[in-house]
Amino acid sequence: MCSSDLPVPPVHHVWVAGPGDGWRLYRSTMFRAPGLLRLGIVWAIFLALLAFSAVADPSHDVTWLVVGLFFPVFLIILLFRRSRAQAALMTPGSVWATGFGANELLIVTPISTLAIDYAALRPPRVAGPAVLIQTRRLGSSSALPLELFPPDALAFLHQHTMQPS
After folding, report:
1. pLDDT tens digits for 28-44?
2. What is the DSSP string of 104-146?
3. What is the DSSP letter of 79?
4. What's the CA gap between 128 and 48, in Å, rounded?
5. Are the CB atoms for 69 and 9 separated by under 8 Å?
6. What angle do CA 38, 41, 42 make, to 5 degrees?
7. Confidence band of 2 (pLDDT split at 50, 70, 90)
């Protein structure tokens, strides 16, 4: 069956971004997104190895100090770029929407429209003013405004994304 033959769920909830919404959503989900969490774990392991190697061989302290400063600065630059991208996507006045079909979730953003099968999604997680929507296979996540998921819609989505026991 061609993807254009699939039914598109109707739009149920619409949200219009206001000033600072992109930054608020990013800040509330920054450390809850799986990719960033994995990056933080890798960074913590790196710092532990760095400390161990500096104690084990003190003759390379300057080298390790430079490397130890490079990675935190690199992480901060990545976080800053990601926050700017989120803020650019959620400019004031941009329209977002969600819809809930029998088998798929509709997500409308200013740059794309997605219809995602519930079987491909993990149960949603609320993170402050955002809802994290994650795929099962890739572990990628999207932070969407909580206003797009009122309690009844969130319960519906949670029920349809739970793995059968």
Report:
1. 766 666 566 666 777 77
2. EEEEE-SS-EEEEEGGGBPPPEEETTEEEEEBTTT--EEEEEG
3. H
4. 31
5. no
6. 90
7. very low
